[in-house]
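Protocol step 4 of 6: structure prediction from sequence.
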Amino acid sequence: MSAPRISVDEWHKRLADRFKVNGLVGGNLRVIHEAEDHVSNYLVKTFRGQNALLDSFQSLLIETLTLANSGIVSNGWPRDASNYSTTLAAFSNLFRRFRACEVLYMKGYPLDGYALMRDIKDRALLMAAIARNMATFPEILGATAAPVAEGGDYGKEATKRRKASEHRIMHSMVGKDSGLPVDVQKALKQWDDLFHVEVHGGAMSLIQELGELASGRAVQIGPSAIQDAYTMYINRSAELGWMVARLLPYLQTTENAFGQSWHEKREVLDDSFRYLLEGLSDMGKKIGAAFIAMMDSKFMFKAPFYYSESDGSQLPGAQAPS
């Protein structure tokens, strides 16, 4: 017969009695909090241009979502735009994910933010494909109009369809069917691999920590003290910010719905991202040059650029719906 469960108060008291340090439960975290604040102050002072750029980007993304929401409140959901609500939700989710990356970076965990970035990269590429009429939201979600056979597993079928769609779309955006030069495709594959190795097993984080140990430095508890980790995050965050910034006009339900001032700010932001990344490219970074080539090909949209329903007919080999 099992022992009687302790009360909630007893459960809490046991933790407090065992783990109180200097009068605080879990008090060893105090030194970590202080280290995180120190890193934040250092990053703000050291990388002023990066902080100004990414804060401006996040501010415009907030303004864009606010304008889109206000438009819905004033005018209702747009007609003949069944996937606009999904699009708005997707952009809102992109802000939340990007903000999570920035919070991790500013607290001293740049490669943990880096690992989350692969999802932003993939979502931005898929959204660009939708905006270019190369894909539809139901397609990238794995939805199917046909009923699943009796006894079938809808979840497995949806996952299979979603992965197949993503592969086709990625090949068309940055891979073998993209029309991009082969050297650009190779550099973009290397760019993608940098995300992959950190997402699966935290390989870059581990290698950097082992390098610190080999140099005779103790393992860092809490925020990272490795400069290269911050540099890697900064480079990738600028690239992904530029991708999302290029997509923002797609949230307009009509041409120039967000007004001239909004467009002027977005153009300044776009030029600022290009300025930063051209600087990296001028340093001989192959990924930088390839990324700009991809942006100038796959993230250029027909003017005027605002929301329209996609049928996916512009994906190579796709058939327009009858």
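Step 5 (inspection) to follow. The CA atoms of residues 213 and 219 lie 7 Å apart.
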